[in-house]
Write a structure and sequence with these properties.
Elements: H1 4-11, E1 37-46, H2 57-75, E2 78-88, H3 93-110, E3 113-121, E4 125-134, E5 150-154, H4 159-167, H5 175-186, H6 192-197, E6 204-207, H7 212-223, E7 226-230, H8 238-241, H9 245-254, E8 261-265, H10 270-280, E9 284-291, E10 295-299
Parallel strand pairs: 2-3, 7-10
Antiparallel strand pairs: 1-4, 2-4, 5-8, 5-9, 6-8, 7-9
Bound molecules: adenosine-5'-diphosphate (ADP) and magnesium ion (MG).
The site of adenosine-5'-diphosphate has 13 residues, from strand 2 and strand 3.
Length: 318
């Protein structure tokens, strides 16, 4: 089996293009453009908590970076560089080769480069820190939503949760339907181009990682506002749309792992929001509005209250 430094050299060392110094020294050196702010975020993936042992290593590499790119997207930051801290039970190249290729393929697509990290033996654990840049004053924050703004969401919601329900044996799906929701769970598409296009357009943004109900509350708290969400307006895949309504609601409202952007924008920004979606090639859908009345109201298309018996995801909740 190869040693630690051989693994780093073989799988995680590549020439840098934008950074001043990459893997191999005590620190990497980044060169953000003069005057830009650095946006920094970390996300850790733990086996059994954030992914199942059944996931293919290339998809795991993709997802580990995608969930981090999603945080840059939610801030409107342009991806620059990332570090990878990896604990591995064994120096297993049948795992590492596809893991690195899935990870680095997404890195190339997003224009973000791997500049350093740490590699250690231990239970499988993947921690990535991303660095992005954003012009001062233009970062999208959770705190900017204002009463009267529209609430928007990108892509479709709920498929990742639906896949989890299939793995748990709660729902049965035909082969190709399962493949497509499994793909949504294992290979989320981070919306970094949308996030950057929403600078100066959206008044607030958050990426949906823990389920819409919980995540929207973070925006409402930070912004000191309330909201009304129309569950019938929430975009969903044809697979999810074919299932019982109670299950649809659970997946749309309480499902995690969507990695779509939920954002607010003034009503006058309707066309600019559509243009931002087009810039990323992703559909954006109006799904509610920000209210001055505190709290979250979930309604159907007729304005009737919809029950929401689920709680937002919390790792330490009893
Ligand atoms: P140090 O002892 O100074 O922490 P290490 O010996 O851990 O350095 O790592 C050597 C070099 O390899 C450093 O530049 C570090 O950033 C890089 N590195 C280690 N693990 C990884 C990894 N998984 N991915 C990318 N770079 C890594
Ligand atoms: Mg080290």
């Amino acid at each position: 089996m190869p040693g630690e430094f051989e693994l780093i050299a073989r799988y995680f060392t590549r020439p840098v293009r934008r950074a001043a110094l990459g893997v191999g020294d005590d620190c990497a050196l980044l060169s953000p453009e003069p005057g830009q702010q650095l946006a920094v975020s970390s996300d850790m993936l733990v086996e059994g908590r954030h992914f199942l042992s059944t996931v293919a290593p290339d998809r795991l590499g993709h997802k580990a970076l995608a969930v981090n790119l999603s945080d840059l997207a939610a801030c409107g930051a342009e991806p620059l560089a990332f570090t990878l801290a990896l604990a591995l039970p064994r120096a297993d190249e049948d795992f590492l080769a596809p893991f690195a290729s899935g990870l680095l393929a997404l890195a190339d697509e997003a224009g973000i480069e791997l500049v350093g990290g740490d590699t250690t033996a231990g239970p499988l654990n993947i921690c990535i820190t991303v660095f992005g840049q954003v012009p001062p004053g233009l970062a999208l924050l959770r705190s900017g939503a204002r009463a009267g703004d529209d609430l928007w969401v990108s892509g479709t919601l709920g498929d990742a949760r639906l896949a989890l329900e299939v793995f748990r044996g709660q729902v049965a799906l035909a082969g190709d339907a399962f493949d497509s929701v499994r793909r949504a769970m294992e290979m989320p598409q981070a919306r970094w181009a949308l996030g950057q296009a929403l600078r100066g357009v959206a008044s607030s943004a958050i990426d949906l990682s823990d389920g819409l109900l919980g995540d929207v509350q973070h925006v409402l708290k930070r912004s000191g506002v309330g909201a009304t969400v129309d569950v019938d307006a929430l975009p969903r895949s044809a697979v999810l749309a074919g299932l019982p309504m109670a299950l649809q609601h659970e997946c749309l409202l309480a499902g995690g792992d969507d990695y779509e952007l939920l954002f607010s924008a003034p009503p006058g920004a309707h066309e600019a929001v559509q243009a931002a979606g087009a810039a990323d090639g992703v559909r954006v859908t109006r799904c509610g509005r920000i209210d001055s009345l505190a709290g979250l109201r979930v309604v159907d298309a007729q304005g009737r209250a919809v029950p929401t018996p689920w709680r937002g995801f919390d790792h330490f909740a009893a």
